[in-house]
Amino acid sequence: MPDRNLALELVRVTEAAAMASARWIGRGRKNEADQAAVDGMRLMLDTVAMDGVVIIGEGEKDQAPMLYNGERVGSGNGGKVDVAVDPLEGTELTALGLPNAISVIAVSQRGTMYFPPSFYLEKIAVGPEAAAAIDIRRSPAENVRRIAHARRKSPKDVTVVVLNRDRHRDLIQELREEVGAKVQLIPHGDTAPAIAAARGDGEVDAVIGVGGGTEGVLAAAAIKCLGGAIQCRLWPRDDAERVALAEGGYDVHRVLETDDLVAGDDVFVAVTGVTAGALVDGVRVTSDSVVTDSLVMRSLSGTRRRIIAEHSLEKLESFTGKRFHDDPREAR
Fold first, then answer.
1. Residue 209 CA to its chain's centroid (Å)
2. Which of 63, 93, 138, 181 is 20 to 30 Å from 173 at the Cα level?
3. Report field, pTM of the whole predicted structure over 0.85
4. How far apart are CA 213 and CA 228, in angstroms?
5. pLDDT below 70 — which residues of the chain?
6. What is the C-alpha to C-alpha distance for residues 183 and 194, in angstroms, rounded to an integer?
């Protein structure tokens, strides 16, 4: 592993992705925003001093020409590492100009990241105070009671973030009617709320529900750095996925905890905001600069840094060949 904090190099990667995708905020074109983020991340990723393999990327090689699962990234010098990336978590959030879109990357020792075939996870994520209290095998209502006890508050004061999906109808009803929890529904992207819960100093007490596996592993990497806990179980969407997981030797009943998702003891995470949210602020363009807000973390040292960076607009546009003031379609 590297003998320095790789997160300080990785933040340049997420900054580049965030700035590139921010040009599409509110323009209603999520695919263009996603591609811009991938291109921006690619621009910086190979300058990072590591010998990386993308474990969690944009998909398989044939469907994702850049940042695909199994791709080699980094300069080739430095530690051998697993890499998880989400150049733009919240493509639709960006397209619609909604909060909590982020760019995120996580790195850990080679062979330590969990990633079965295409999968969803049933999850519960909390901060340090409630880390020992949760048990995904129990009901959501019981988990809220346990979280409330651990945090010394009433269940009615517990805020739970849930993805706004039809599959969560019963979950939402249980949280509201059985324990009176405050349910905060989000349209997309549960990585940022899970990290916010892990910080333990904001309004989010927990994230509960079924979401993407990529987001679960990225959240676990951040939780390794911040404290807290995440518990998950594989959630096949149909019989075909259930059979594929069984044939691959995966147990859908097994409870996956933080160390199962990211087993490394030296984990690096960088997050940069695209649109403003509970975790970090979004990209802001001034008359002569682009301002980014990032969170960078390392598990081994427990260090977390908030980095506000001001990028010269003139030099940025000269370096990237992209304009930030005009219609992005003119800068293709």
1. 15
2. 93
3. yes
4. 18
5. 1-5, 59-66, 116-118, 316-317, 319-332
6. 14
